[in-house]
Amino acid sequence: MFLTRELLEAKAPPFLPFYHTISNKHLPHILNYPVISEKQFKQELDFYLKYFQPISLEELTKSPKPNSFHLSFDDGLKECAEIAAPILLQKGIPATFFVNSGFVDNKELFHRYKASLIAGEMRTRPDAEVENYLYENEVPLNNILQVPFSKTDVLEHAAELLEIDFQAFLQTHQPYMTTAQIKDLHKKGFSIGGHSHKHPEFWKISEKKQLKHIKKSIKWVTENVNPKIKAFAFPYTDDGVSSKLINKIHENELCAITFGTAGVKYDEIPHHFQRYPAEQIGNFELNVKAEFLYFKLRQTIGKATVKH
Fold it and tell me: Which domain holds residue 138?
């Protein structure tokens, strides 16, 4: 069996773990992935620092050092500024925060966060009428946390039946960062990137709509922070995104670097990288080791590179 250091420090692509939020509190709008506590996050960062060298987004676009890692966060949630950033600054770890232009300043709530609020309410206060309505509209309650963007209107009506007010939730809880907080992160040395306008499933929309979401997102980032490196992380995954579109983004200089979420793998497209979803059920260290072992096994059969 591989030793930890031998496994993690073997030749591999830059390690790019990503998160969404860090919190010690229950977040009612997030039931679709595990929420990492502050203590756990610090332990995970110490693990990264033990086996990898932290690099900036700019360094990633050039010639990344061997055994390097770059951390990122998706969706622009407020805990990024209030909890994650101070910890990262204390430990000297660069990071990129990918934001959805449609959610900044708590303008709107991500459709799967809406689904989480509905699911939470239905667990404590079951409602047969709402459950039937969801089922009839192809959003079964047992699968509501995977609801697609196209079913947002169904979620809105279900919320009305349950007397859930999404706008009131946004005003009361303010789950997203403000423009001022994002600008402050940039001033402190963090990178800011785009993550689409309203986080749709790209594999379910046309290439024209995909490009529209990318442009709108990058336009917001450029107008508000004007980053040195323009970066975009595809929401969920880059599955369903053609190599033609990714190359077009780079060739037209919309972005200098883009990201998927296929884990530890190389990618056939230059300056397109694959990130590792760090928020997983189970033992963190074992999960990371398993990911690198899987990479090594794929490498032996010539399948360690993502083809688009």
Answer: 111-171
